[in-house]
Design a protein that fits this description.
The protein is built from 3 helices and 6 strands. The protein is α+β, with helices and mostly antiparallel strands and 133 residues long.
């Protein structure tokens, strides 16, 4: 059976929307490709970062679900943002989207600034690793 344990040492700053470390045991790893706000027709949807983040996260979780996992199985997620300042400014709103779609079991996470993503209109991309039993 897969087991994730979130590690948040008191010596580090309190994590908000992520875990400092995640230990994992299980028999299957799922590597999730980067997902942007592409719809089923291959078009980027969403006029702003929160809309695109919601679609990208939905796409990531859809791929995970079809691989047999759930949001609680996510051990690691990397967020690539074309405007980190906008990401930080909207962090509370993005956190609400995360909790609504993925819950409160946060994986180890990083936000990385990117000059641009594969699809020029994309503002955000998420990839991840999950551990399944």
């Amino acid at each position: 059976m897969s087991s994730l344990h979130r590690v948040n040492p008191a010596e580090l700053s309190p994590p908000t929307g992520f875990s400092h470390a995640v230990t994992a045991t299980g028999s299957r790893l799922v590597f999730l490709a980067g997902q942007t706000a592409l719809d089923s027709e291959g078009e980027v949807t969403g006029a702003d970062l929160p809309e695109q983040f919601e679609r990208a996260l939905t796409n990531l979780l859809t791929a995970l679900r079809h691989a047999g996992g759930t949001p609680a199985d996510l051990a690691r997620v990397t967020v690539y943002a074309t405007d980190v300042a906008d990401y930080r400014a909207r962090a509370a709103e993005l956190g609400r989207v995360w909790r609504r779609l993925a819950g409160r079991d946060y994986p180890a996470m990083a936000v990385v600034g990117a000059v641009r993503l594969w699809d020029e209109q994309a503002l955000v991309e998420l990839d991840g690793v999950a551990v399944l039993d």
